[in-house]
Specification:
alpha+beta; 3-stranded antiparallel β-sheet; two-stranded antiparallel ribbon; 6 helices; about 25% helix; elongated; disordered C terminus
Length: about 160
């Protein structure tokens, strides 16, 4: 399971990926402008999912190795998944808690998964009605989000009361 194969994706050609796909043998339609070959802006080609670049934002279909749920995620997130890299399995946000224990996966690695953090925050809001800002509740704690290109990390930072 994990990445569903075979799978064909449509990608937009840009100067950043044109040479990569040409080297893989894909035919990229070009136009002649001022006696130079160029690629028309917005040109799309179909590629096999395993040929996608690691940083590709293209949505790919994946399947949870625990429950079998099929869902989509950006290929860049799939290729960087801790569970996929370490144990060769992929888990949806509903199964990841039980699989952490089952496969002895470090919890800090799961918290680096943006989808997991957002699902848990959504569950908290549904259960408690709303999210209270630090000034409204738990004055000694602060919920902080730091963004990076591949994920959102969530962590609690104690605030000193001087």
């Amino acid at each position: 399971m994990g990445l569903i194969l075979p799978q064909i994706c449509e990608i937009t050609i840009s100067p950043n990926n044109m040479e990569y796909y040409e080297k893989l043998g894909y035919d990229i339609p070009k136009i002649i402008v001022n006696n130079k070959e160029r690629v028309k802006r917005g040109t799309k080609i179909k590629v096999h999912v395993l040929d996608l670049m690691n940083g590709s934002h293209t949505l790919v279909k994946v399947q949870c190795d625990e429950c079998g749920k099929i869902y989509e995620m950006p290929y860049k997130d799939y290729s960087k998944k801790y569970c996929v890299q370490k144990i060769g399995k992929l888990f949806c946000v509903d199964c990841v808690n039980t699989c952490m224990v089952k496969y002895n996966i470090a919890s800090e690695q799961v918290w680096n998964d943006k989808n997991y953090v957002l699902k848990r925050l959504d569950d908290f809001i549904k259960k408690n009605g709303k999210y209270h800002t630090p000034s409204q509740s738990n004055a000694g704690m602060k919920l902080s989000f730091a963004t990076s290109p591949s994920c959102i990390n969530a962590f609690v930072i104690p605030i000193s009361r001087a």
